[in-house]
C-alpha cells in the first residue's frame, strides 16, 4: 500500500463522478453547444459571485488566460515573491503575455498595502505600465495559508485606487472558505477575476474554472482557443466537475483535520521541525535538517517504505492531505516516519 501525500492533485474521481461522466449530455463546447459545460460554468460562477465562468483544462492555463485578458504586452504585473503564477508556471507571464513581473515580498501571501503602493509605476515613458495585481489563496509555498476577506480587500483597494485589475489564483479557494467558515464569494468579491481548481481537493479528474465579468470571460474564451484549450465534447469532464462542486466542498474540512493531526504527530518526532499552529488547511511543511538528511534523501527512504511526499527546499518536505488518504493511513505514515527518524544517527 502506497500512502501518497505528494499533492491533492493525485485524487481519483469518485464513483458518482464516474457515473456522471458516463451519462453526461454533451455537445461541441467550442461552438458553445455542450450543455453540461454550460451548467458547470454557471454553477461555478455563482459560487464565487461572478457573472460568468470558463472551463479550462488546468489551473495554470486559467491563470495565464486571465493575465492575457487583463494586460497589454510590455506591462508589469505585481506578484507575491513565492506565488504559484511566478514560481511554477514555466515563465508563462513573459512567454505568453509579454509582461515583466515585479516581485513583492509577502507573509503567507499577504503583501503590505504600502509596499504595493510603492510598486505601482508612475506615468512615465521610461517605465512600464502597472497592468495587473495577482493574489493567491490559499498560498501553496506558504503552506496552504489563507487570506481573509479583509486582507484581500486591503490589497485589492490599492489596485482600485490606481485603476489596476486584480486576478486571484484561487486554486484551493474552497479550502480557504472552509477554513474561515465563509462563502467563497466573500473571498472573491474584491477581485476582478478568479481561477479555481476542480482537480485538487475536490477530486475531479481534470479541469479548472476561470470566472469574472461576462465581458472578461468573452475575451478569455478567445485566449483559451489560442492556447489550444478549446475542447469539444467536454461535458464528460464537466460532469465530474459538477459533482465536485455539489458533493465535495464540505468534506474539505476532513482534510484539514487530518493535516492538523499529521502535523501534531510530526512535531513530536525527534529531528523534525514544524509548528503545528501554522497548518491552516491541507498542506504541511516541515524540516528534516535535524535528521542530518536533505529532503531528497529523506523522501527516498520514505518511498522505500511506501510513503510519498515532495521536496520544498533543501531540507523542507511538503505533505498534502486529501480524500484518498484516510486517518488510519496517516497514522501508519507517522509510525513509518518515526521509525526512520529513530534509526538515523544524528
Can you put this structure into words, describing what you see?
- The chain is built from 14 helices and twelve strands.
- The model has no long low-confidence stretch (mean pLDDT 97).
- It is α/β, with parallel strands linked by helices and 346 residues long.
- The longest helix is centred in the C-terminal third of the chain and has 16 residues, at 252-267.
- The strands form three sheets. The protein has a seven-stranded mixed β-sheet with strand order 2-8-7-6-5-3-4, with helices on both faces. A three-stranded antiparallel β-sheet has the order 9-12-11, covered by helices on one side.
- Helices cover 42% and strands 15% of the residues.
- The protein starts with a strand and ends with a helix.
Report the order of strands and helices.
EHHEHEHHEHEHEHHEEHHHEHEEEH
Low-confidence spans: none
Morphology? globular
For the sheet with most strands, the description reads: 7 strands, mixed
Q: How much strand? A: 15-25%
Distance separating the two termini:
29 Å
- What portion of residues is helical? 40-55%
On the 0 to 100 scale, the average pLDDT is: 97
In the sheet with the most strands, the strands line up as 2-8-7-6-5-3-4
- Rg for CA atoms: 21 Å
Number of strands: 12
Number of helices: 14
Structural class: alpha/beta
Question: Can you give keywords for this protein?
Answer:
single chain; globular; 12 strands; alpha/beta; 3-stranded antiparallel beta sheet; 14 helices; about 350 residues
